């Protein structure tokens, strides 16, 4: 099961990628919105998107991703360190869930499992 992580902080990229791979997911990491749009990913099951990227905001990126018919219904989780105002905006912008940074990894895996209807096969 393929997750696309869009995060510009190298430390957060490593943390999330190592954790998610340990949970049985394949992870594609993109540091910018442009890189996420250009990533050669076949059938992602979920997007994890930082709302503050160097070349765009996560809201814009989600709109562009969801414009592709095959990605229209792919669940997306917004990540932000800014709290409640971003939570309201993210959910209004059709993100499926919102998690604050620093992110509790137990909460992350519970959220992913809930959105996907179960854990990946190992």
Please explain how this structure is put together.
The chain has helices at 10-22, 33-38, 58-66, 84-92, 105-116; strands spanning 2-6, 26-30, 44-50, 76-80, 97-100. With 122 residues, the protein is of the alpha/beta class. It has a five-stranded parallel sheet with strand order 2-1-3-4-5, sandwiched between helices. α1 (10-22) links the parallel β1 (2-6) and β2. The chain starts with a strand and ends in a 6-residue tail after the last helix. The model has no long low-confidence stretch (mean pLDDT 91).
Question: Helices and strands in order, then pairings?
Answer:
Blueprint: E1 2-6, H1 10-22, E2 26-30, H2 33-38, E3 44-50, H3 58-66, E4 76-80, H4 84-92, E5 97-100, H5 105-116
Give the low-confidence spans: none
Which class best fits the helix and strand makeup?
A: alpha/beta
**Strand arrangement across the biggest beta sheet:** 2-1-3-4-5
Number of helices: 5
Q: What distance separates the N and C termini?
A: 10 Å
**What is the gyration radius calculated from CA atoms?**
13 Å
Order of helices and strands: EHEHEHEHEH
Oligomer: single chain
Nearest-integer average pLDDT = 91
Beta-strand percent range? 15-25%
